[in-house]
Amino acid sequence: MIKIKALTKSTSENNIVLIIDPKGFKKSDALSTEQNTAVKNAIKAETKKIFFNNGSFHTLVIFSEGAVTWKVAELLRKSGAKVCAILNENKSVSVNVLADDTKAALAMAEGIALANYQFLKHKADKKKLSHTLSEINLTNSKITKKEIADLNIIIGATYITRDLVNEPFSHLNAVQLSEEFKKIGKEAGFNVEVWNEAKIEAQKMGGLLAVNKGSKVPPTFNIMEYKPKNAINKKPYVLVGKGVVYDTGGLSLKPTPMSMDYMKCDMAGSAVVAGTMYAVAKAELPIHVIGLVPATDNWIGENSYAPGDVITMYSGATVEVMNTDAEGRIVLADALHYAKKLNPELVCDFATLTGAAVRAIGPYASAILGTADDEIKQDIFDSSYAVFERLVEFPLWDEYADELKSEVADFTNLGKGEGGQISAAKFLEKFTDYPWLHFDIAGPAFNHAQDAYKPKGGTGVGVRLMFDFFSKKAKK
Fold first, then answer.
1. Same domain as 127, residue 174
2. Mean pLDDT on 442-461
């Protein structure tokens, strides 16, 4: 993995990214006399950037005027992605990032590092295909060791999350996902408890068991916990992730093109939980966090649950199954009910839950709904803009709960097609009695083409947002 580190002085013969404020620019010691002159001329011409080819190494000068707002930070990350591509095309190993503004330097480094990700596990010629870039040097002396350490941690956490999402079902069923959680927990320093099928049956988690009925692989229920001695929260923050490692749609079968063929990503919510747990524990934040992941595939078999079935959930409520492809909310509901036992400060669940969320806002943001108070929501939104993982809030109006009424059970698992992301959240709400936020990440969790520093495939969306949120809580 790429390494970000501090460098007290920039070496003269290395790739350089120089970020300068054009106002008042006189000269930079990192540039030659001719290059300084060229930069001044570029400023007069109101050019946004200038590139110098120095033979064996390159220098890119980017002009960034004024404060580094969240919009400017995102532009710098995107520029970092372009820098990353150039460096790897030229077989470069390292780059120095020079900027007087610490936020600018960190954003550029983050963009380069996130863009450098590759998933080559199943490639025969990994060595040939691997990016050469492996080191980013930050020369700004105002950047603290903790800022660099945290940036390395969040890059590592995002890589882990992307790897989990990109791993195909042939190599990552529910049991194997639990083993990955154990490995991540051991590396980062948090505990992982895995319930097997017998324990799940004994606990009567009827939702998880119903979805798993058609599978040859047993389900698991995963409890991850990081509880430092200096935790500042008396009640835990709880993260819940949808762990459907592959979704055929069940008997309500999905079409294959642009649907079932990408359903290895239907466990992206569980990957967000694991990635966030990794980051919080690795950074040793004084925050007590618990992660819950119900894991299974949604397969077709002789015992598959069927439309019209009535299942008894972990809560004791009965659900009439109207569509077996609305399985994510069924497994999440059991985990959300379990969270009641934990007396949580806040519960956040993450799921690639509905196509309705994608139709409403596309791949550019996640839908968010919930009962948490306005202060918590504002903190979450502040973090979403800080890392540019935008959110769109939808209402939780009771009319959407009316769509879930059933003649034969307590309620159904499916509302109308219109506003389906809301009726899905209203279903989940029935299993909560605590401050709660639901993140429908169906749009941005998986890319079908590279988008700047977000690769094709798993993006890791949600992890940087939650780490920023918890980091700010820790500072308060």
1. no
2. 97
Domain end residue (candidates: 91, 109, 143) = 143
In-domain check, residue 271? yes
Note the pLDDT tens digit of each residue in 31-42.
999 999 999 999
User: Nearest 5°: CA angle at 273, between 135 and 443?
Assistant: 85
Encode pLDDT of 241-289 as tens digits. 999 999 999 999 999 998 999 999 999 999 999 999 999 999 999 999 9
Collapsed DSSP state (helix, strand, coil) of residue 279: helix
Tens of pLDDT along 351-377?
Answer: 999 999 999 999 999 999 999 999 999
pLDDT confidence of residue 12: 57
Kindly name the residue from 77, 162, 282, 329 that is annotated as catalytic: 329
- 390: annotated active-site residue: no
Task: Return the closest-CA partner of residue 458 out of 271, 325, 188.
Answer: 271
Based on the fold, state whether residues 96 and 225 are members of the same structural domain: no
Domain at 447, CATH number: 3.40.630.10
Indicate if 78 belongs to the active site: no
Whether 155 is in a domain gets the answer: no
**pTM (two decimals):** 0.96
Q: Provide the 10 A C-beta neighbour count for residue 183.
A: 12
Residues 94 and 129 in one domain: yes
One domain for residues 7 and 138? yes
Phi, psi of 97 (to 5 degrees): -110, 120
The Cα angle at residue 415 between residues 360 and 384, in degrees rounded to 5: 35
Q: What is the CATH number of the domain that holds 57?
A: 3.40.220.10
Q: What is the pLDDT of residues 175-215, one digit of tens each?
A: 999 999 999 999 999 999 999 999 999 999 999 999 999 99
Total domains, the chain: 2
DSSP for 338-386, please give it.
HHGGG--SEEEEEE---HHHHHHHGGG-EEEEE---HHHHHHHHHHHHH
User: CB atoms < 10 A from the CB of 57, how many?
Assistant: 19
Q: Within a domain: residue 158? A: no
- Catalytically annotated residue among 254, 340, 359, 377: 254
